[in-house]
């Protein structure tokens, strides 16, 4: 009777551990490949050459739109008429984020994954200058890996991905435990995965 109960309990846990293991692996599979690949490119960033592409755009605000800019105070987003005009004239969509205001200039930093950008407006003449730098798709993927200038939505995705990886690893550990009796190399391999990076840290990282 006792053996029957133990087998039923084991079957129950095996069923649900396998279920959560494959679900979490499916959720994090593609992202895990992305993060593993960009881990390699980040580790060899000095050996991967990049040729940044820089683009300049210039325009001048009309007087009526410039007037709305002059009426604005410091530490505020660009006025909506200015953002709308820039969107229409320069094909550049600007978020309502705070700009750096001075007596003669309004400066808006526009960092992005895989590059950088900025926009400045002269408050007296209305001259608008925009510069964008593109460092290529490898730099873009590297910045996704680091969560650099990616916004709140991608940050939430990284958190969810990390949680899925934890579930994948923890359920895998329990499955290893339940199958360890039939696989003698299980715990030596797990121990190797723990000891190897620890030894490398102690010996080669100071």
UniProtKB/TrEMBL annotation:
- Tell me the InterPro entries matching this sequence: PepSY_TM-like_2 (IPR032307)
List, alphabetically, the Pfam families matched: PepSY_TM_like_2
Keywords attached to this Swiss-Prot or TrEMBL record, sorted alphabetically, are: Membrane, Transmembrane, Transmembrane helix
Q: Does the keyword Transport apply?
A: no
Superkingdom of origin? Bacteria
Instruction: Spell out where the chain crosses the membrane.
Output: 20-42, 153-175, 187-205
Transmembrane as a keyword of this entry, yes or no, is yes
* Full protein name: PepSY-associated transmembrane protein
- Biological source species: Luteibacter rhizovicinus
């Amino acid at each position: 009777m006792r053996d029957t109960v133990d087998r039923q309990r084991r079957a129950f846990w095996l069923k649900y551990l396998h279920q959560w293991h494959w679900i979490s692996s499916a959720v994090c599979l593609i992202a895990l490949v992305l993060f593993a690949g960009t881990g390699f490119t980040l580790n060899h960033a000095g050996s991967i050459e990049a040729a940044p592409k820089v683009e300049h755009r210039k325009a001048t605000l009309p007087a009526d739109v410039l007037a709305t800019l002059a009426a604005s105070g410091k530490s505020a987003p660009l006025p909506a008429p200015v953002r709308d005009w820039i969107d229409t004239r320069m094909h550049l969509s600007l978020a309502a984020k705070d700009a750096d205001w001075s007596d003669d200039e309004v400066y808006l930093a526009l960092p992005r994954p895989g590059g950088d950008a900025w926009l400045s407006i002269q408050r007296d003449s209305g001259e608008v200058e925009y510069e964008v730098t593109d460092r290529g798709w490898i730099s873009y993927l590297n910045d996704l890996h680091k969560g650099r200038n990616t916004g709140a939505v991608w940050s939430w995705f990284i958190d969810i991905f990390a949680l899925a990886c934890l579930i994948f690893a923890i359920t895998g550990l329990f499955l290893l435990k339940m199958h360890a009796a039939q696989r003698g190399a299980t715990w030596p391999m797990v121990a190797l995965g723990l000891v190897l990076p620890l030894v490398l840290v102690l010996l080669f990282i100071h």
